[in-house]
Write a sequence for this structure.
């Protein structure tokens, strides 16, 4: 009995945070919500969803069920919001001569927000990990991607703590090139202060950040900098155009990024088209030559029927525009929401490196996602 | 759209010749850190295979067995990752190309031009400058 219990605990423990749960930008405009915070408690989306988001999850996005916490079995007091995400994946990967079968835990993360009078404390904590063995001991996998204090009044918010800037599309796929290569990978969240304002048809965000104080808290470059974004909705909330910029510096380099985001919802066709283009200048210290970089993501998602979405996405990352080093990927994915709280996500990705399309890599991934 | 057209025009002028410096500072900052020191791999956090490649100094010592600025001692680098002057005897090159061992990085392989620069750095002595 003890062995069985331990095995369950270990099994649960290896469901790790190799992925993160951001907002699903494909639901903006297409589901009646116009900004991330319509459904999420965080201004950047992701993590905890609010009462409206839970209703949407059951009434609009999935094929039915009760989207409330624990399927409505227990309602927390009004000052407290709780939630969580659990993901696991299986699939195949071909790269050159290598053929791999994949089966790995992606995410086990719990969220909580407590507050009153416009002031709240938010915490996202879980187990980090990855797709490869050996895995570190369980206690070393504990991690908190986000924790912050937020003040909110009407359309204004100010928050301080650990979180990503509001920047770009903020897709849930952390391997999207606009995320992975622009400093929005797993556990790259900096510490900082941010403020934002949401007008009737627009929203703007400003974020100043410093490196995490302890290297062990995350990955990626330990940068300090500022980021800003602005988005305006057009065409009676059927389109949105945005722009974002960031400046950051580390011990080794200085990076300046500027980009645009566009979204267009075609009501009759049930089609959402969205894209992001970012140009980045990286200058190295010590007189080393700098480089221009480019990250692109563009795609379309069709709502086939309630609870079923089919999408295509192209990605391009150019680490140095002066070289033949581009990385391209083409995705086809199907999302199925059979009930509130449950998502099945099938992804197929073909990718090529350095303009060599003769031997493309292939990734097929089936992801099971459950949220509390 | 204008940005895409500009980028496409820029790419039309992409050069095969790589004039980037084959120095460790550049190789680490431009290639190793963004491609290898990710959260689930060779970051301080995970240090998969006991390799933390997040800092230039630490990564140099892990890969070459040398300490930057210190005299070169006798013996081979650990696990023969980098044999200064000899890309053909450096395991790192075989891992990056996926020859005889698992390709690294496992999710997104490096483009040829990046591997070639690392080979050039090794061939020129793999100094830490």
């Amino acid at each position: 009995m003890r062995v069985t219990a331990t095995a369950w605990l270990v099994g649960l423990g290896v469901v790790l945070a190799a992925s993160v749960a951001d907002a699903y930008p494909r639901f903006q405009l297409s589901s009646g919500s116009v900004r991330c915070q319509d459904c999420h408690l965080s201004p950047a989306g992701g993590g905890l969803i609010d009462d409206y988001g839970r209703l949407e999850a059951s009434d609009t996005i999935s094929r039915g069920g009760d989207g409330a916490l624990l399927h409505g079995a227990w309602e927390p007091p009004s000052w407290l919001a709780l939630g969580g995400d659990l993901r696991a994946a299986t699939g195949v990967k071909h790269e050159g001569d290598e053929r791999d079968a994949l089966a790995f835990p992606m995410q086990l993360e719990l969220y909580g927000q407590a507050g009153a009078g416009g002031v709240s404390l938010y915490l996202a904590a879980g187990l980090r990990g990855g797709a490869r063995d050996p895995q570190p001991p369980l206690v070393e996998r504990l991690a908190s991607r986000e924790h912050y204090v937020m003040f909110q009044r009407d359309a204004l918010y100010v928050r301080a703590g650990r979180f990503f800037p509001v920047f770009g599309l903020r897709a849930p796929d952390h391997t999207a090139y606009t995320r992975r290569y622009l400093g929005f990978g797993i556990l790259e969240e900096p510490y900082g202060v941010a403020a934002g304002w949401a007008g009737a048809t627009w929203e703007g965000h400003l974020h100043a950040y410093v490196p995490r104080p302890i290297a062990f808290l995350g990955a990626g470059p330990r940068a300090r900098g500022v980021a800003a974004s602005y988005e305006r909705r057009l065409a009676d909330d059927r389109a949105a155009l945005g722009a974002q910029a960031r400046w950051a510096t580390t011990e080794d380099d200085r990076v300046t990024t500027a980009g645009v985001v566009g979204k267009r919802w075609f009501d009759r066709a049930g089609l959402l088209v969205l894209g992001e283009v970012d140009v980045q200048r990286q200058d190295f210290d010590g007189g080393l030559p700098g480089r221009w970089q480019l990250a692109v993501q563009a795609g379309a998602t069709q709502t086939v029927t309630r609870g079923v979405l089919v999408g295509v996405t192209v990605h391009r990352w150019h680490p140095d525009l002066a070289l033949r080093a581009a990385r391209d990927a083409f995705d086809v994915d199907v999302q199925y929401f059979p009930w509130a709280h449950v998502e099945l996500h099938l992804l197929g990705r073909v990718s090529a490196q350095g303009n060599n399309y003769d031997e493309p890599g292939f990734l097929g991934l089936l992801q099971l996602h459950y949220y509390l | 759209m204008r940005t895409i057209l500009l980028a496409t025009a820029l790419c039309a002028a992409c050069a095969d010749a790589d004039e980037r410096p084959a120095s460790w500072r550049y190789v680490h900052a431009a290639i190793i850190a963004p491609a290898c020191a990710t959260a689930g791999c060779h970051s301080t956090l995970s240090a998969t295979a006991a390799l933390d490649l997040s800092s230039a100094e630490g990564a140099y010592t892990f890969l070459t067995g040398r300490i930057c600025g210190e005299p070169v001692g006798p013996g081979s680098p650990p696990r023969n990752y980098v044999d200064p002057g000899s890309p053909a005897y450096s395991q790192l090159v075989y891992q990056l190309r996926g020859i005889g061992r698992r390709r690294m990085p496992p999710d997104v392989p490096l483009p040829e031009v990046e591997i070639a620069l690392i080979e050039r750095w090794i061939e020129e002595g793999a100094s830490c400058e």
User: Anything to note?
Assistant: Chain A touches chain B through 57 residues (CB under 8 Å). The radius of gyration of chain A is 20 Å. DSSP finds four helices and 16 strands in chain A.
